[in-house]
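Cross-posted from the bioinformatics board.
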Amino acid sequence: MSDTDAQSVFFMRDTMLPQVPPPAGQSGPVRWLRENLFSGWFNTILTICGLIALYFLLRGLLPWFAHSVWTADTLSECRQIIAAKWGPDATGACFAVVRERWTQWLFGFYPRHLYWRPVLTLVLMFVAMAPVLFPGVPRKLMIFSAIYPFLGFWLLWGGSAWVPLGGMAGFVLGYIAWRVLRENRPLVGILVAVVIALLWWLLLAGPVIDLFRSIAPLAIESVRSDRFGGFVLSLTIGVAAIAISLPLGIALALGRQSDMFLIKTLSVGFIEFIRGVPLITLLFTASLLLNYFLPPGTNFDIILRVIIMVSLFAAAYIAEVIRGGLAALPRGQYEAADSLGLDYFQAQRLIVLPQALKISIPGIVSVFIGLFKDTTLVIFVGLLDPLKGITDAVRASIDWKGIYWEPYIFVGSIFFLFCFGMSRYSMYLERRLKRDHR
Amino acid sequence: MKKTVFFGTLTAAGLAAGLASAATLDDVKARGELVCGVNPGLTGFAAPDANGTWTGFDISLCRAVAAAVLGDGTKVRFVPTTAETRFTALASGEIDMLARNSTWTFSRDTDLALDFAGVNYYDGQGFMVNKALGVTSAKELDGATICIQTGTTTELNLADYFAINNMSYTPVAIQSNAEGEQQYLAGACDAYTTDASGLAATRAAFATPSDHIILPEIISKEPLGPATRQGDSQWNDIVRWTLNALVAAEEYGVTSANIEELATNSQNPEVKRLLGTENNLGAMIGLDADWAKRAISVGGNYGEIFSATIGESTPIGLARGLNAQWTQGGLLYAPPFR
């Protein structure tokens, strides 16, 4: 055995080899390429096909974007500039139309000197949403969130401040009634609150508002609904519908689970009817059919009608999404709530809904994103949505007739920003809520 | 019992609605503005500019009616309507009148419960093809793919024309003019068909207009005109005679420039009756004596409106053609103001 040792000593390594980087084929981008794009003959063929497709796509698109013209007064001027700069056969985008008319896509025909009002409304919207969306924000801001719908209405449409204040008073009166009665008879309290609010809005609000208006008008310049257009219109309808449809959807989902026959039947009937009908049908009903039934001369604002219809539509879908969340809760959660002696509303508020809503977040946000994009359908009832309404109006001017892709790219990017933002927020919310359960 | 009461109330409400909406003139006066259904964007005919002010050939008619009825050509609310919803919007009372390059046809006038109030533009359907195709007549379009807008009379005319000439075609349905242009330029169809006025404007906006030709055949009659709801003849009369006043004003040489002068010292009795200085014709349609004078003052007479919006001096460059006065070989013929 010692021989063996002697032999091995002879071959003993006395110097360390320097560390060598891995072979070129086993590291860095080359390895990544080999593993991900060229692993096997099938994937290699797919990669090559993909590259060819990408090449043809970019060969068409890149020059078009690279030759963009941003300063011109007409489409023909755009074409001249491109031809002069890049040769007679060159194609190029004419984003000058966006540069010249972007205010129209954003604000529609909102009076130019009042642009600050929709902008302020949008900024305040984020302030109002902050306490709802993020945990670190002081809770006291919730008061502002409650006032915001009325403030936003007043800023957008203008007119006398007493109108939104009158609307708000109905809620305040109802709330007071509910506070007084809730100790003894919670259900009766809700009922009385609703009746008082309705009585106020239908009978008293009008004369009282007129009275206050005659004392002090408190008015800012009013803007009519037909001046609304573009993203001001889309956001107004979208945000209002989102805000209305979520509570309505929750109520419908709970109603569908209810043991009370009437409530259950009404909820199921409503949800199934709305989900069985296309949104366009509802919009047509709001704009055209409703006129046959309303007394002539009634001026029921078209944007308001659309908001109501879109909200009802979204509420039905949200109700079903939340029902999925409710169904996913283990039976034990309901029983635990019962064993703690909580009544129905306490159980829903403290135990069931927080968990069910958390499960439903991705679905709810999908419905919201879909709803926001569906606001472009209002073109069919004569409102100027950003995608087609405003674009067609711009195209009808002889200066920009014949322009096609540029407006769509512009409007599409703005929609993408909003929808992508919503989707990222929902992922943030899921992560935040998941942490509690780790 | 309860059901009966309910339905009774409903019927009564419906009847009241029917009765009340019969007097569009009163509604418009009470509201203080005219609601006019228009095309959301047709070059030269109706389009809002960068400030949201609507301009165009059809728009001018709405403004003239507003001036006649309310005394102010700006008191109009323009409601954009699509090809599919325009007649429903009128029938439901959403709009007071429709001035949306709509063709006057038998079924629309009778079955759809509309009343057309005359013709403000005589149009006809034509074809545009790429010059490289080598086609010089619509008769050579056998087997062609053709881009066509849905929900319009052009769709039906096309079918008629190809059936008469024993030819076949493949339709490519499009929604709007812009989409049609895009499809046509991208080569999705051999020919693009729509009203000749639209073809001219479309071709003028191409990068190379000379590569495309408009075929000589006009395959249909498209009398485009304003419409009102059926059953309100007073309102229909107002729209009809406002249009007639604009046409007659051109015939008698009344323009927005000389109207004040003619109103005071014209010796032509027809002009005097038109401008309300002799006989009170306005009273017969529920308006005052100056109604036609106000209507003409807004945008001028028919000829002035035509040349300002779609005429040869504009980029659209339409010739008067059929839309010239009858004295000039056209079809415009206003009945006498008497």
